[in-house]
């Protein structure tokens, strides 16, 4: 067989639409993940016991249950339970976002707890509390520690967006699969998108490893 | 009128189809074990050593393989193996074989990095001391380096088992008769999606929980022995 790149290039509008869909899924899941993850992290570090327990159980549940099953649950059950009409895109992206929130919460918590105790104590003794304490002392240092794992999980999130193709969301993977079936040029389309994912994810993972080596400096 | 959960949630259908769901779950667990042993332990170790090799012809392909497989989604890898691979080689595989192959290669790429880090984690002084004592290659690796590397490698390696279990659910896109596929079929047959998918999610959560807790216990055992 011969590798026909032209058949891929000829069908670029559909692939572009798929890439756009992948971007939208990532954006929704990232927004949900960071927002809910921040709240969970606060609950996990809260002095109130039920909040800590709730956050810990939530994080455990979403970290051990396969994403694929949660996506299917969200897609088929949310409309029936709530009566809302919700598209596969939103159901799947929110499911991915909730999974991401569990990971982000743990990354945030690890970053905050990795700070030496002397830092918040020194700030408190200088009379800093609340927003200035977080804005000038804790967050600038903690964020630096969080960036490598955040980038790393972002690459996982990007890979997980392909799972939405199982519920019929037309992301890059599904478009390539459908085009492959239509033209019977599976090799070209699937190889092409594998390279596209590689070209996005590999630099990010290099960046994350590099930042990790530099440490919290 | 009192709230009656049976009006909203049909427990009979769950009991009726629970065995079928468990058979599906069994496939996921089987894939997890096969992926862990063949991919994580065997192929992962081979790749780790290839990646550490001083010979460039060995190191570069191993490096390229690991980086490529770590940077592409498993779903794409699985459909690539199932649909594109037969066109290139002329040899077609069943969905289960394709899924297993994709999983094994994917897990191997991940685990080879863990194993490589473990081997590199053994301090240089250990090699030097072993050589100073006149140990040749076989006892140097067998009695000095590997026992120490194993202690560094096993805890994080066991930790990947939950990721492997979660990844097996992705392989249902190839129509393997796993938990998800069983759930989809039963759900469309009985038209009870809430009951079936909720039970499926709970089963998967419990299996994942068991794997995580078992792994944590095993890790604790190895950490204690390492001291």
Describe this structure in words.
The complex is a heterodimer of chains A (217) and B (227). Chain A is mainly alpha-helical. Chain A is built from nine helices and no strands. Chain A has helices spanning 5-10, 12-44, 49-64, 67-82, 88-113, 118-125, 130-160, 172-183, 186-214. The model of chain A has no long low-confidence stretch (mean pLDDT 91). With 227 residues, chain B is mainly alpha-helical. Chain B has helices at 11-52, 56-70, 74-89, 95-120, 124-132, 137-159, 161-168, 179-190, 193-226. Helix content of chain B is 81%, strand content 0%. Chain B contains nine helices and no strands. Chain A binds chain B through residues 1, 60-61, 63-70, 72-73, 76-77, 80-81, 155, 158-163, 165-166, 173, 176-177, 180, 186-187, 190-191, 193-194, 197-198, 201-202, 205, and chain B through 67-68, 70-77, 79-80, 83-84, 87-88, 162, 165-170, 172-173, 179-180, 183-184, 187, 193-194, 197-198, 200-201, 204-205, 208-209, 211-212.
In brief:
The complex is a heterodimer of chains A (217) and B (227). With 217 residues, chain A is mostly helical. Chain A contains 9 helices and no strands.
């Amino acid at each position: 067989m011969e590798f026909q790149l032209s058949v891929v290039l000829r069908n670029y509008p559909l692939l572009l639409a798929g890439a756009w869909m992948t971007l939208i899924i990532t954006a929704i899941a990232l927004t949900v993940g960071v927002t809910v993850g921040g709240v969970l992290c606060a609950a996990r570090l809260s002095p109130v016991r039920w909040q800590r327990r709730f956050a810990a159980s939530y994080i455990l549940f979403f970290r051990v249950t396969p994403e694929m099953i949660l996506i299917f649950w969200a897609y088929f059950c949310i409309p029936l339970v709530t009566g809302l009409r919700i598209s596969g895109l939103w159901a799947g992206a929110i499911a991915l976002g909730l999974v991401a929130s569990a990971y982000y919460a743990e990354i945030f918590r690890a970053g905050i707890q990795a700070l030496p105790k002397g830092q918040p104590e020194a700030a408190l003794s200088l009379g800093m509390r609340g927003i200035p304490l977080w804005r000038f002392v804790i967050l600038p240092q903690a964020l630096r520690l969080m960036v490598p794992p955040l980038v790393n999980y972002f690459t996982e999130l990007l890979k997980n967006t392909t799972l939405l193709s199982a519920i019929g969301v037309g992301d890059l993977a599904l478009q390539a699969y459908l085009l492959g079936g239509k033209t019977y040029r599976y090799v070209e389309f699937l190889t092409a998108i594998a390279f596209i994912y590689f070209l996005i994810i590999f630099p990010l993972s290099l960046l994350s490893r590099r930042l990790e080596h530099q440490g919290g400096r | 009128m009192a709230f009656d959960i049976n009006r909203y949630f049909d427990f009979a259908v769950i009991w009726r189809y629970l065995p079928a769901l468990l058979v599906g779950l069994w496939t996921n667990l089987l894939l997890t074990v096969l992926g862990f042993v063949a991919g994580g332990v065997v192929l992962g170790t081979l790749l780790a050593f290839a990646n550490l090799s001083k010979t460039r012809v060995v190191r570069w392909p191993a490096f390229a393989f690991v980086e490529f497989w770590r940077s592409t989604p498993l779903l794409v890898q699985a459909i690539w193996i199932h649909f594109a691979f037969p066109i290139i080689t002329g040899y077609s595989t069943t969905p289960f074989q394709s899924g297993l192959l994709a999983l094994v290669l994917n897990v191997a790429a991940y685990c080879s990095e863990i194993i490589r880090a473990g081997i590199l984690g053994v301090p240089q002084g250990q090699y030097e001391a072993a050589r100073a004592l006149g140990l040749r290659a076989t006892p140097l690796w067998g009695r000095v380096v590997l026992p120490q590397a194993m202690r560094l490698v096993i805890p994080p390696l066991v930790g990947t088992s939950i990721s492997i279990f979660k990844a097996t659910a992705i392989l249902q896109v190839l129509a393997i008769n796993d938990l998800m596929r069983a759930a989809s079929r039963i759900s469309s047959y009985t038209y009870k999606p809430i009951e079936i998918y909720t039970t499926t999610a709970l089963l998967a959560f419990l299996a994942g929980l068991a794997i995580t807790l078992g792994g944590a216990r095993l890790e604790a055992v190895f950490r204690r022995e390492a001291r």
